[in-house]
Each structure stands twice: as C-alpha cells, then as structure tokens.
Amino acid sequence: MNILVVDDEMLVRTGLRTLLSSDVSGFSFAGDARNGAEALELIPLMMPVIVITDIVMPGMTGLELMETVRERGLLAEFIVLTSHRDFEYARRAVEMGAIDYLLKHEIERDTILPVLQRARVRLEEQALKRRGTPLPAASRTTKTRERRHILLRVNAVGDARARRGDESLSSQIVSLVHQIVGREVSITLEGVRDGGVWHFTVQGLRGDPHRLGERIVRHLAHSMNLVVRVGISLPEPAGSARFFDFQFCEPGSVIIQRAKVAGDSIPGDLSIVRSVRRKMERALEQRDYETVRAGLQQFAQELQKQQVPRVNAIGETTQLMACFLALGAGNDTGLMRAREAAGLDELLTPLRTALDELAQHQETGGPTVPAEIARVRDLVQREYPRHLSLEEAARVAGKSVTYFSDFFRHHQGTGFVEYVNRTRVNAAAQLLLHSNDTIAGIAAAVGFPNEKYFSRMFKRIVGVPPGAFRSGNRTPSDGDRTR
Description:
By secondary structure, the protein is of the alpha/beta class. It is 54% helix and 12% strand.
C-alpha cells in the first residue's frame, strides 16, 4: 500500500523514507512532497493512499490539505505529524477524520506500524462499501512471480531537476510509475544510475510490456512535462538491466528486450562506426559538407545496426561534436545534450544542427567566424600542447584582454580556456584509441599539467574517465592497452 509523506523538513522526509523502505509488511514508501501544493498534485495519481503529513507547513497547513482532499472527493487516509506544542492541531485533525497522530520525536517502527494497520483496516472497509470486494491481502506473496527490470531515462534531466528540485522530481516519478503499473504488481525502486535513469524491478507484470512502456511515456509527458525513454527486460534469469544501454540506438520511446545480453561483450562492430566517424572528420577538415551529411546518415545507420552501447555511441558523437566546435559551429549546450541523450535521434540532433550551420555559412559566402577568432583557433590547433594564456590569445586577435574574452565567448559559444581544454581532450581521445601511451603520458603530451586535472576535465567533457573511454572504445586491432 502506497504511502505519501508530506513535510517541509528534509530530515523528517528522509527518516520516514528510510523507515518505510525497511521491512514494514504490506506498506511501501511511494514518494514525498515538500508542501501541501505538491501533495495535491500527487494524491490523485496514487489512490488509494495513506498520507502522513506535517500539520504546520508554509503555504498550506496539514489541516487545510486534509480539508481540500475531502472537498475534492479524493480517497486518502491521513496520519498527522506533530510536536507537543502543536497538540491542539493534532486533536482537531483527528476530529476531522485523521487516523491518528504521531509525535515527530517518537517516530519508530513500533509506534508507526499499529497506526498504519488501523489505516489499512479503514481503507479495506471503505473498499468493501464501494466495490463489495476487499483490497489485496497484505500477506499475499510475490516471490514466485516473474521478475523484470524497468529502466526509465529522462531526457534533459538537468533541466528537469532545476525546475522541480532533485528530491521532488524523483519522488513524483516514483509515485507515477507506482500508479501506472497498478496495485496488483509489486514494484521496487532499485536506484537512480547514470544521473538520469530510474531503475525499477517488478513482479507480477501482466499483458503487453510495450503498452505499459507507452503508458509510462504518455503519463509522464502529460503529468510532468517530461520526455522519457523506457526499457523493459525479459523475465529473470534471462532479464538484464544492462540491455537498455546496449540497445540504446534502437528507434522509438520504448525498448523491449528480445534476447539475453551475453556477458560483458559489446555487440556489433564498433570499428565500423569509428571508421565512418573518422571519414566525417576528414571531410570536415576539407569543408566537404555534403560528404559529412552523407556520413551522418551512415553514422546513424551503423549505430543502430551494430546496437552500439550508450557510452560508446556518446563517445563517438562527442568526438565529432568537438570537430564541429573547432570550426565554430554548434555550442556547449549541444554537447551537453548529446551526453544526456535518451535515444539515437536526440544524440545526433546537435550534430545535424551544427552541420546546417556550417552549410548555411558556405551558401551565403560569409565567414564562419571573424578573422580574429579564426587566427586564435589556428593558434590553439597548432600550439595546444604548450601553455596558452588569455593574454597571448588577445594579442593574436589584436584586442584587449577584457574585450577579447567576451568577444571570443560570443562567437565561439565558450570561454577561451574551455576551448583549449576541449581541443586537448579531443587530441587525447585520439591518443587513447591509437597509442599505447600511459594516461599520464597522454595528459602531458596534450598540455595538461597533471594526470588528475586531465582525468577530471576528460570526464566532464566526454562523460567517462579516460581509462573507461579507452577500454570501452578500443578494439583488439588497436593493440594492447597500457594504462
């Protein structure tokens, strides 16, 4: 039975989440809200639900929340949280129909369980009156039912967290997924991985998994304005949570695992994808944009055909994006979008946008960037292994340091130091793939002062540490790896 916790204090919400996530038979933590307004959004999506709410909160008190829920005809039973000084509020809450109250400083398993049991009895009685049928028994076991993985990747998760807050976003996603799969299905949140993938396990899933995935996509778009991609595995033991990333390049918003992913092997031939990417890089150097456009189409086809894992697909794409940035096309936002991509189309959109930008400049006959910027970029491409200062770049551009800094950022879409670091990381990526030098040696060769700083910059720009990039992208023909 789902429980929603409403309290403006993070420590209280965290404590109840921990308590309700432990072995409290028949009950499960479904999410939390920081205030009454957030709770009113979640309660209709989680019926029937037990709401454990603080009484004194900014904006809307717990008593006002109870009253609003009753007025709207929503099915929810309330347990209120209080302190000694707010006891009169607790008495009023019970008079309004709350199951009971709990003193915040005395919340333990032994004190909360009897209250939850009383809430369950009341819900069962109400269910009998409404439908003539009882709620599913708390003792029903799900151990013998098939277990699957559901993975939910949120597009542009950084923007979503900025709008809603990290805790609120996660709790609302969990609550909605619980509601969508239904009460007959046992679902557990295993964690959030890669920064934006919610990993659930489910037991007792019936019907067409693809339709379930489509419902999740549709409901999160409608209720939370989120664009998501869903993967649903085969039943265990064949099921794997890793198939989602291995089939990252499949089209569509819902991926259903059709066959077992064997071991840690990478499916398909990554060297084919890498060959197409290198061909595009050469065409970019020659300003042959038609060849690049044809190459992008082939690149997309091979990523899909070879079912390239997400980390490898993003690694190849960000290397290409670095080449576009070096020509003055695209921007850091496009690079960030590629690293957060939830599917093949979103992964390649920044590349297509950058190519259109270059082609438009070519058609109009206008320069891609001002001559001053072009001179500085040429300097960086030639001299990136040595120390390059902002002062030296400003002299090459013929401008003051202050003016040049803003001028470069305006035309290049990034600061000068960041541009130098990206150029060095791009060169380092090539050395990681095609040389046996140590990571420390490569860091020194491309101009980073030490391995630690290099590793931090590489992970921030590419998305994975240099060692993981090398091991995940090298093929046997590239020679032995040396770390």
